Amino acid sequence: MKVEGLIFDLDGVIVDTAKYHYLAWKELADGLGFYFSEEDNERLKGVSRMRSLDILLEVGKIELPDEKKQELAEKKNKQYVEMIKKMSPDEILPGALSFLKSAKAKGYKTALGSASKNAMIILNRLEIAALFDAIIDGTKVSKAKPNPEVFLAGAKALNVQAENCVVFEDAAAGIEAAHNAKMFCIGIGNKENLPDADYLIPGFEKFTIRDFEDLIRN
Ligand code: B16
Ligand code: MG
Questions:
Q1: To 10 degrees, what angle do helices 172-180 and 149-158 make?
Q2: How many helices, marked H, and strands, marked E, lie in the chain?
């Protein structure tokens, strides 16, 4: 496989922002009078903000007009942004920073491919924005994963053919999006959650750029 571009999802791949999303969504659910569990929160991973709210309201069996939903999504986001504004570089998931740095040193082009509209705040807080040749986030695309738009835009921004890109993803919808873009996809997780990944790793802690090159050579 000829690989020139690496595209990384953010939440669940480079950093665990799901815990902050959960706290903010849970507070919203508490205010609406129902319990939102961590298990329910699993369903929100990789999903857009408005779709996340729909899932949350489904859990609480609440129906609301669009205007009210907009207001709640903004309220949750305000809460979430307050938390991520305090993040620090030590929150980068184990091994992710050295993988990114060695990928760049080896000459791969790197892109971020995230659904989050807050990706820039996070990258800046983690001090890793400069490690990406292109940043495609929720402010730049309109179609949510499993639509391939975010990854195709990443390949285009890197000036690399889609089939020469590899995606790193932790969400099933993201793996489907990568496949829809005709990209090889390495899943961060396990077979149970991500049955369709082309290859699975638990994280970057024990997966070096050398392991990656061995994998794509075969
Ligand atoms: P925001 P990713 C996703 O990030 C999160 O996994 C998902 O839970 C969140 O709803 C989505 O971003 C939108 O985030 O509300 O900040 O725009 O995995 O695509 O990096
Ligand atoms: Mg993710």
A1: 60
A2: 9, 6
Are the beta carbons of 7 and 183 closer than 8 angstroms?
yes
Q: What is the pLDDT of residues 183-213, one digit of tens each?
A: 999 999 999 999 999 999 999 999 999 999 9
Give all domains of the chain, ordered by start, each with its CATH number.
5-16+89-217 (3.40.50.1000), 18-84 (1.10.150.240)
pLDDT 10s digits, 35-65: 999 999 999 998 999 999 999 999 999 999 9
- Closest by Cα among 181, 185, 155 to 167: 185
pLDDT for 218 equals 78
Asked if the model's pLDDT at residue 173 lies above 90, the reply is yes
With a 6 Å cutoff on the Cβ, whether 41 touches ligand 1 is no
For ligand 1, pick from 11, 85, 117 the residue to mutate: most ligand atoms within 8 Å of CB.
Answer: 11
In short, whether 76's Cβ falls inside 6 Å of ligand 1 is no
Q: Which residues surround ligand 2, an ion (CB under 5 A)?
A: 9, 11-12, 46, 170-171
**9 CB within 6 A, ligand 1:** yes
Residues making up the chain, counted from first to last = 218
Q: Report H helices in the chain.
A: 18-32, 38-42, 49-59, 66-84, 96-105, 119-126, 149-158, 172-180, 209-217
Q: What predicted TM-score, i.e. pTM, was given to this entire model?
A: 0.96
11 is catalytic: yes
Which one from 9, 40, 133, 137 is the annotated catalytic residue? 9
| Band (1; pLDDT cuts 50, 70, 90) | confident
